[in-house]
Amino acid sequence: MAINRRIHPAARRGISVTRPRKSVAMTLLAALFLVYALVPIAWLVINSTKTQPDLFSTFGFSFGHSFALWDNVVATFTYDDGIFVRWLGNTLLYVGLGAGGATLLATLAGYGLAKFRFPGRSAYFAVVLGAVAVPGTALAVPTFLLFSQLGMTNTPWAIIVPSLISPFGLYLIWVYTVDSVPTELLEAARLDGAGELRTFFTISIRLLAPGIVTVALFAIVATWNNYFLPLIMLSDPDWYPLTVGLNQWSEQAAGVGAEPIFNLVVTGSLITIVPIVAIFLFLQRFWQSGLSAGSVKQ
Amino acid sequence: MSITVPLAAPPSREPTTVAHPIRKPKKNWRGWLFVWPFAVVFLFAFMAPLLYAVWLSLFQNRLVGGNSFVGLDNYVTAFQDPAFWDGFGRVFLFLLVEVPVMLLLALAAALAIDSARLYATGLFRVVVFLPYAVPAVVAVLMWGFLYSDNFGLTASINDWLGSDVLQPFAPSWVTVSIGNIVTWEYVGYNMVIFYSALKTIPTELYEAAELDGANSWQVIRAIKLPAARGAIVIATIFSIIGSFQLFNEPNVLKPLANNVITSHFTPNMYAYNLSFAGQQYNYSATVAIIMGVITAAIAYVVQIRGTRQEDR
Predict the structure, then answer these.
(1) CA B286, B289, B293, B298 torsion: positive or negative?
(2) Which stretches does DSSP call E strand in chain B?
(3) Chain A contacts of B38, Cβ < 8 Å?
(4) Hey, how many other C-beta atoms are within 10 angstroms of the C-beta on A2?
(5) Which of A176, A179, B6, B284 is 20 to 30 Å from A246 at the Cα level?
(6) In this protein, which residues make up the domain named ABC transmembrane type-1 (chain A) (predicted)?
(7) Which of B12, B41, B127 sits opposite A37 (nearest CB)?
(8) Is the torsion defined by CA of B40, A102, B129, A44 positive or negative?
(9) pLDDT of B221-230, one tens digit each?
(10) Where in chain B are the domains?
(11) Under 8 Å CB-to-CB from A274, ≥6 apart: which residues?
């Protein structure tokens, strides 16, 4: 601030375009945004503490007559012989193999495209980037039909294999590699006689870490939240992920003459979002830097 | 129908491009060591279904005569199908209204964060982004409860107003209700994309503008918006794709608004219901392909226009 002292009266007070005075009015406007983002989540948290009668009879944003969060959690995990635990396990399986695999494949391919010139490289790039524009759900029904010919529907593979493709992740890793892995470093490793894969797994992968975390995070969200694909691929509730299972509970609760389990839908929803929100908050330093590296080139 | 809407191609910094044409490294197959696994899965889980869909769309399964080649008949049928156009009109309207509203809100939020004039900027950024991490199913269930007459926010507001002004599931309002859910889910995501682009503007530019006596609005118009243009084009393309494949939100909301959300409410729901309720796989594939081509065409036009403005 002292540097600007001679230039401008505003600068003397430490106010500039880059370091302006805080604005209460703008903060209040932003607070409206904050409330909008939080209202449904607050509703979910509050109502997961209510018994089913309270859910119907008390105001949505006040607590009920009894605090039943723990009872609801226990009921969610034990209802129908613990099917919710099974769904949670399925989701973890699909996220682990699907998002993990997607990250690995996108990282290898993005790195390969950035650092090597090989026959077919331009065609490879054009086809994969063209794929970004094809709506995923337009492919879902044909994928189902193809997989059912191969007998793959109603198995975990029907969810995991399509999840392995992340053209956006490939693109992000490519950009990140160009920026952060010096070609000279790779040439030095080659002169030392290290193989390409060895160089990748011992040197390059560390330089790429923030980019890899970003790609992994978005792949995790995509598979954790996946609904359409499992909905069409799976008919056996034992293979459902949380999203499809919760929707089945919700339809059951709304159905005529069925056992109303609204409290389980609410508590189950809360349990579904807690891990994914936690991951995002925990890793925010990484994905925010990873994203801005990607957007430099946009 | 593999369509090219390239994101900006990453710069290639290999010496081959311009600087040292003599040192051009000879091509070799080593790169395939890294790119083959993605290619194999891509061919199997992306290209194969795509080609299979095109193949399917050229056949019809009739009660008499079985499976037979019909050329483009399915496409002719689709173009004359009121159910398809009803859904298409709805998502197109949705695209024209919801996407600009959402992107403008996201841009305003990103500019607000970037202006450094907010208290608690970090909190704001994270909280507004949070809904993106919430699965669409859960988002719709939450908003569905809030919309409902039994235990919702709507019921409370109507009680308080003493009228029935808010009818989230009325035929004329249900698309708006869905638009609100989609906006809630994605506004923070788009904000982060815009903000990442704004953050890359070098400080020297701001200092220069300041010495020239530029005020905040001039800085936004002359520096920030041009810098964010690439990100805006990308976000617009993703939002177009998202709108045209609208499925999760109306499908999860359907039990709550049963007579309002029809089986052809969006083209994607139509394709889904044709397959799984009607067993009309060939026609379903046709609808999916038509939507894919239209989406890609519009995305391509946006991309071209966005880039042209960039060159100006």
Answers:
(1) positive
(2) 59-62, 66-69
(3) 105-106, 108-109, 128, 165, 170
(4) 7
(5) B284
(6) 88-283
(7) B127
(8) positive
(9) 888 988 888 8
(10) 79-311
(11) none
Alpha-carbon distance A43 to B217, whole Å? 38
Domain B79-311 is found in CATH 3.30.70.890:
no
Could you tell me the pTM of the whole model? 0.86
Distance separating alpha carbons of residues B95 and B244, to the nearest angstrom: 8
pLDDT tens string B65-105: 778 888 898 999 999 999 999 999 999 999 999 999 999 99
Contacts of A36 (CB under 8 A, 6+ apart): B184
Closest by CA position to A273, among listed B132, B183, B193: B132
B1 min Cα distance to partner chain A (Å): 8
The secondary structure of residue A200, as a DSSP letter, is I
Contacts of A297 in chain B (CB under 8 A): 8, 10-11
Question: Contact at 8 Å (CB) between A158 and A233?
Answer: yes
Task: Copy the structure tokens of residue A215.
Answer: 């790609």
Q: 10 Å Cβ neighbour count for A282?
A: 10
Say what the ipTM of the complex is. 0.84
Which of A296, A170, A215, A171 is closest to B230 using CA atoms?
Answer: A296
| Rounded Cα gap, residues A192 and A199, in angstroms | 10
Domains and CATH numbers, chain A: 2-36 (no CATH), 74-295 (1.10.3720.10)
Amino acid at B126: V
Q: Which residues of A touch B8 (CB under 8 A)?
A: 297-298
Contact between residue B127 and residue B189 where contact means Cβ atoms under 8 Å apart? no
